Amino acid sequence: MSGFDDREKAFERKHAQEQKLGFDVEARCSKLLGLWAAQKLGLSDNDAKTYAMSVVESNLDEPGFDDVLRKIKGDFKAKGLEISDHVINVELDKALTEAKKQLAAKS
Hints:
Structural class: mainly alpha
Shape: elongated
Helix content: over 70%
Mean pLDDT: 86
């Protein structure tokens, strides 16, 4: 019975680590995408960092990046910027790749 309990605890630890890594990747990706969007919005320095953090916070609304994309697209529209969904999705893919790379280097 002890061996089974040990395996179960190991599985639970692995699952928790994978969930944390997924959360960390999404948060880092959202921040990187937010910094890109801030640049497009004409923000710099502290304003850009603050905006990027608001993008990270918007990612807490629902799983995935739909909430982040809605925020960024809404902010672009409010500013009168016409940036295509394709361009935004390409930047999201780049940010996701970079986030994974940064976190892998950190480990």
